[in-house]
Each structure stands twice: as C-alpha cells, then as structure tokens.
Design brief:
- By secondary structure, this protein is mostly helical.
- It has one domain.
- Helix content is 88%, strand content 0%.
- It has 4 helices and no strands.
- Helix 1 runs antiparallel to helix 2, helix 2 packs parallel to helix 4 and helix 3 packs antiparallel against helix 4.
- The longest helix has 67 residues.
Amino acid sequence: MAEGKGSSILKWVGIGCGVILLLVGGSCVGLYFLGKRAVTKAAAEGKSFAAKIQVAGVAMMKPSVVSLLPVADHPAANKAFNDLSAKSALLTEADSRELQQAMQEFGQDSSAAGADLNARAVAAKKFAAAIQAVADRH
C-alpha cells in the first residue's frame, strides 16, 4: 500500500508542476505579444511624440515672443501658437525640423539685435510667421 500511495503523491506533484509550467509558459507568450504590440505602437507614435516635444518647446517661448511684439500683433502671434498647439499630433518630422530651424533663427536674430527692440520685434514676428506657416499646412 505504501508504494501505491507514494506513486499517487508523485503523480499529483508531477501534474501540479506541469500545470505551473503551462501557466508560466502561457504568461511568457502573452507578455511577448503584449510587449510586441506596445513597441509597435510606440514606434508609430514616436514621430508624433517628437513633434509634441518640439511644440512644447515652442510654447515655452510664447511669453517672450509675444512680449517683444507691438500690441497690435499680439492676437496674430497668440493665434499662431494656439494653432500649432492644437495641431501638434499632425506634425511631421519635416515640420519638427522647420520649427527647430525657426527657433534657432529667432535665437540668433534676438542675440544679434541686442538691445534694439525694433530688431527683436522683427525677429519675433518672423518666428510667429514661421509657426503659423507650419500650423497652416495641417
């Protein structure tokens, strides 16, 4: 009787181990496909994410750009920033590069202008126009 009972226990231990192995294997397969889907989605959204980061950088410049402009130009500049922000998910890599170029040019133009407020206002207006041009494409 002892032998029959011992083999019965070993049988149930073996079945339990087999079930655990199946659960672990199934979980690994499920995690693989879940991870693969997440990576594919992240790659597809990567371009959109980069554009959103670029737009966030541009948005941070809004107060200083608008403050350099004459009061009459404030509504147009605010519209440019708001339009770009609203369309950030639609922007392409080329748009992102164009925004980066516009930011660099604004920085260079502002530095070159020094204390000349008229020259800095021209640089701010040029930057706002570049932003609006990108937003208008979408």
